Amino acid sequence: MKLSIVIPVFNEAETLTLLYQALKDAMAQQPYSWEVVFVDDGSKDQSFSIMMELVDRDPEHFVLIGLRRNFGQTAAIAAGIDNAVGEIIVLMDADMQNDPADIPMMIEKIDQGYDLVSGWRIKRQDTFITRTLPSRIANGLISWVTDVHLHDYGCTLKAYRREVLTGFRLYGEMHRFIPAYAGYVGANILEVPVTHHPRKYGKTNYGLERTIKVVLDLFTVKFLISYSNKPLYLFGGAGIMLMLIGLGVLIALMVRRLGFGISPFSSPMFPSALIFIVMGFQSLLMGLIAELLVRTYHEAQSKPTYSLRRVYGKRGETP
Questions:
Q1: Hey, which bits of 186-279 come out as E strands?
Q2: Which of the residues 2, 117, 177, 287 could staple to 109 if both were Cys, CB 3.0 to 4.6 A apart?
Q3: Which residues are 33's β-sheet partners?
Q4: What is the pLDDT along the chain (319 residues), one digit of tens a residue?
Q5: Distance (Å, rounded) from C-alpha 146 to C-alpha 141?
Q6: What's the angle, vertex CA 159, arms to CA 158 and CA 162, rounded to 5?
Q7: Cα-Cα end-to-end distance for the chain
Q8: Distance between CA atoms of 122 and 108, rounded to whole angstroms?
Q9: In terms of Cα–Cα distance, which of 101, 229, 168 is closest to 177?
């Protein structure tokens, strides 16, 4: 199987039949094998029964996975990826704002050698204040923090080689950070303009509160990308800074004592300096403990600290 299209679904009964036909039309002339993996994320409407009917119409190309309750979009995407069999994974929304007609173009880019092709909704059909503006701010922040620069992290329509999706698990709202993880392991990333349609049916499941979740998840992503294999750099760096601040305050108090005869014990700066030094020492110890945990984590799972692209020659594939 060359291609798996993973679609998380939550209360999208009005769009599913249209989506089914749009997918059939988009993939009808493609020479490669493909499948669509619907993931019902605990829908409260008729979405599940409608998807069952659609799968019965074309069981060769359509698969349905039903979750027991609403676990969230990230968990639904993870379930779809785990149950997909394609060499290339395409993610897209079920609300018909993503256009299935863009998928063949993205697969062509993957065939040209890219590991990840990300959609960019240049002409976004959403309300500016509540959707587009917060998204632009989040995109800039994510690009700056992760150093993987994309205009539209929030666009679900993306195509991935399966190998760049291995090695990490998705939690919280972290599906939008997959390009950052892929960039961390050296994936070749391309961003392409895609069509974005206005929502015709139902209501959006996203709001301004999601921006707060994105910011919180960004702290986790930054730690995992930059410090998961070397936590001492984070804790040790902070510890050394705190200790230097405390030491600097003590030196200033000593100079004041020798130069002006002012007792260091009469100033609240003296206990503050001691607190800084103790906190810095504790931070160093936390870094050492984190280093031990990281080594235990990698060695217990025989998990390498690197990511292979390919192996050529007798032990690998033919050049």
A1: 189-193
A2: 117
A3: none
A4: 699 999 999 999 999 999 999 999 999 889 999 999 999 999 998 999 999 999 999 999 999 999 989 888 888 999 999 999 999 999 999 989 999 999 999 999 999 999 999 999 888 776 766 666 777 888 888 888 888 888 888 888 999 999 888 767 777 677 888 888 888 878 899 999 999 888 877 666 555 566 677 777 788 788 877 777 788 888 888 999 999 999 999 999 888 888 887 888 877 888 999 999 999 999 999 989 988 887 787 677 666 666 666 666 655 554 4
A5: 9
A6: 130
A7: 22
A8: 20
A9: 168
Q: How many residues does the chain have?
A: 319
Output the six-digit token pair for 15: 């769009």
Our measurement of the distance from residue 271's CA atom to the centroid of its chain's CA atoms, rounded to an integer in Å, reads 43
By DSSP bridging, strand 189-193 and strand 88-91 are unpaired
Which one-letter amino acid corresponds to residue 55?
A: V
Strands 158-161, 116-120: parallel, antiparallel or unpaired by DSSP?
antiparallel
Read off the DSSP letter of residue 130.
Answer: I
Mode of pairing for the β-strands spanning 88-91 and 3-9: parallel
Q: In 241-268, which positions are buried (b, 16+ CB within 10 angstroms) versus exposed (e)?
A: ebbebbeebbeebeeeeeeeeeeeeebe
List 312's β-bridge partners, or say none. 317
Of 267, 209, 208, 278, the residue nearest 245 (C-alpha): 278
Which DSSP category does 32 fall into? S
